[in-house]
Specification:
Length: 65
């Protein structure tokens, strides 16, 4: 039987997020992926430096043993 599960990724750089999500997706079977939610947040840090946060939530079917 399959359970629904999520995996959450949070990175400071867009390319790091892309790499980590793709690496995780490569571990799934072809019918396991349900959806991917993606978000970008920007805010001012110390000294008015703009900081970005790239995140993704992968929703997938987790196979039970």
């Amino acid at each position: 039987m399959n359970d629904i599960a999520i995996e959450v990724f949070d990175e400071e750089h867009e390319k790091d997020l892309q790499y980590n999500v793709n690496a995780f997706l490569s571990t799934l079977g072809e019918d396991d992926l349900i959806d991917i939610k993606y978000a970008i947040n920007a805010f001012l840090g110390n000294g008015n430096e703009q900081i970005y946060c790239y995140s993704a939530m992968v929703i997938y079917r987790k196979k039970r043993n």
